[in-house]
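Worked example (supplementary).
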Amino acid sequence: MIHPGFRIGLGAENLTKSYRRTTALSDLNVAVSEGTITALVGPNGAGKSTLIKCWLGFERPDHGHVTVLGLNPALEPVAVLRRVAYVAQGTPLYSDLTVNDHLTLAHGLRSDFDDDHARGRIGNLGIALDTLAGRLSGGQQAQVALAIALATHPSALILDEPLASLDPLARREFLDVLVESARQEGQTVVLSSHIVSDVEHACDGLIILRSGRILLASGVIEALERHYVAPRHLREGREIGHLPPLPAGDPLSLYEGPVTLDEPLRRPSLDELVLGYLAKKPESDPTR
Amino acid sequence: MALRLHRWSLGAIAALSLLFTVLCGWLAWDVASTAATCATATASARCAELEASGTVRSQDVVKVLGALGFLPFISGSVLGVPLVAREIEQRTASLAWPLAGSRVRWLARIGLPVAVLGALLVAIPAAAGFVLVASYAPGVDPARTFEHFGMFGPAIVVRYVAVTSIALFVGTWLGRTLPGLIVAAAAAVVVYFALSSTYGLWLPAVPLPPVEKPGEDIGRLYVSQMVRMPDGRLIPIDDALAIDPGLDDITESVEFGLPPERAPEVALREDATLVGGSILIVVATIVRLRRRPPY
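After joint prediction of all chains, the assembly is encoded as:
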């Protein structure tokens, strides 16, 4: 899913990663364009977190390799982490430290940490600096974690399920901050999420994973234009009266049950697209 | 900030440190004041005790120094294990490690101040123990005695360093605080008994001169007892008992061990071994830390 004229921000080639007898990622190839926001979606156990951990150098591939901004995290983990920020699943913070303590800690750990930037963002959200992190709401904790990550001015930002425990309003606020920063600073962002509808307006790219394999890797707009929602009987080619001409693209059989002949074919929503891919039986996976 | 993160552990060690410092100081003062009082008036029971044994409150001193001997093992375990294990357990390693970039840098920023402050907290009662030994055994240089060896003074700090490094390694390896504390405590017990039972082996034992008057043997380290057979051979007393159960033909008993003035050499060898071992363990910890995921 490299856009013409773009460079690879994060990539994986023939990436395989197993944990004992479980294959988390299987011969996976993917490329994320620099300066884009990409949603990494898939069910639990799809391999999203494992792919992210390989990009961060937390896990070493069994076969193949990953690249982050042209670097190999398995060989140059420190160099990668100097350029990449990470917001972990559940946005962990030190519950017995205040927000201000977190910023002091971050500054102590990283000399180029932009304290003013972080304070500004947190202040704009109305979060008091002297509040203990453990007393913040889930949305506020996520915002603090994001503010810390963004204050390192990373070239790439990787977020592992940051929206999972947030209410809809908090999710929207979080994504607004993320998109604003990414657009301003031209950051490459990969965001794993279960909540497809929320990332629809935020993301340029989409990667759908299942069982350690990529089902779809594409720009969001391109993916929506290439697909349409077709009643199952149309896809199966049964003649029922007059068939409307099928548009170009990949048919998705998202409908079950009776369908009227005059039902129009239409473009899917991102939710429908993802669900359509995830509903496909494994043997029909395009990557197999 | 590192100290704030570990303030509860440090607070517990500080409380123990204060307790031992007060106990050692108070006992040292009591022993010294008793000696001063008895120099002018010898009518009390305490003065009689001092006259008879050369010291007072020996039971209390033994108890306090014995407990102080455990302080480095407790402190090292309590401070060393959570440094890494708690970060992994509470998942904050996922925040801090990528932020720091280098995990060695993170460990230096967070772990080093905590470990150094811990050493200072342990050093205070260790010094108080030194003062106590000086008061308790007048005429004996605490730096040159095997009396309560390893239970006061610099040995306490060196042992703390060794146990902290072991605990750090265990915490990094397991990534869990409670199991880490259990394993580190077990390791600390092994180290404690290994040190307690082997320090006599750091130097070859020599025949010790016979004790001519009471108190002359204070500070000696006894390692073994040999007996001289009629043919002039020196053999261990157990072997002699096997040959001559009544020991009727024994002409002379010779104690083997180390005189007090050899204590600094033993301490130096033990310290060098512990510090060297600690460095190796910290290197192993860093290798593990760099490889392990933050979860």
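Two points are worth noting when inspecting this output. The first strand of chain A starts at residue 8 and ends at 19. The interface with chain B takes residues 53, 56, 58-59, 77-78, 81-82, 84-86, 88-90, 92-95, 97, 101, 104-106, 108-110, 113, 145, 148, 152 of chain A (CB under 8 Å).
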